[in-house]
Specification:
This protein has 361 residues and is mostly helical. Helices cover 70% and strands 2% of the residues. The chain has 16 helices and 2 strands. It has a two-stranded antiparallel sheet. α6 packs across α7, α6 runs antiparallel to α15 and α8 packs antiparallel against α9. About 5% of the residues have low confidence.
Length: 361
Amino acid sequence: MKLRKNIYSFLFAFYVFVRIIVSDEYGFSYDLINYLGYFRYIDFISWAEIYNSIFLTFPFVFVKFRFFEIGFIILVKPFLSILKYKTIYALLASLSVFFRTKILYEWNIPFFFILLIQMYSVALFECNALRAGIALTFTLFFLNAIYKRSFLINLFYILIIFLIHIQSLFVTIPFLLSHLIFNKIIKSQALLYALLILTLVLSILSVSIFDSISFINDISLNQISLTESNATGLNLTTFLGLLLYFYNIKFLKNNIKKNNYVFFLRCVATYVFTISLILMLFESSFVILSDRLWQYVMVVFSAIVLADNSFNKLQKLKNLKLILFFLFIWMNVNIHIRYPVSNILYPTSMSIKLKPLYIVE
């Protein structure tokens, strides 16, 4: 069984590697061509310049026109002089897919859900936001360590995520902080509800904060803030998200007396999911940022909900699974058919020409 799962994980990753290698880098996805441009500039910058930059902008290094996390630069730079840029991209993307598939299998998530989750996440992250894709994979390893109560390993994964894609800490830090005070929180049902209310309040405040921002130094964020998106507001995706939220709250309420660690992780995942859902419903200034957070959280949240463990085995998850099924089907239809973000599922002869929002020169 374990060998078969490893083979499936390898096949997922191998397909991603080959499809990227044979792709047209200018039209395969919105950001592949830009990442190849980032690689070119990272290749040109010297280690001395990187070292000097660390003291000024840690954990970022300023490269040409934007900031990159030092961990990502250390990860890719040694290979830039010996391999083609697209080969490096394909290797990193396929390795990320391999290990993420592997951890999803270890959690005994049903194969069809793994397929839906990976179709969704690979198109959005490995094909367009490579750093976020790598960080997402490490986030799942981090959650696995959280479940096993391995504190030192938790810190190791947090450090990697911090050094590769710092924005991903928005998802991982709540789990780490909650892990530290688990024994106090899990004994108080009132505190669990209070945390949920606090999460709702903070979510609404975050919408106000985003809307009030009028000046950003980072070029890429300026472009994001000016980009329109149909993903936010009340639509089929957020409607299904609301259904998922209320069914999950009902599920937690009915099982709050379980007071075990897996139940606790479900609570923390719900808090993070709540923030992403509210931003998707009401955020209007940085729609792509709220959309990206939603995409990231959906993979994490669904993995925790679908994990086959001693807690979930005893619970009736049919409604939650059904909503997740339709939600992932619809989200995959959006990103692969209605508004394609990559050609990962299309053969080269049927590729759709995608025009990036901007191209790194």
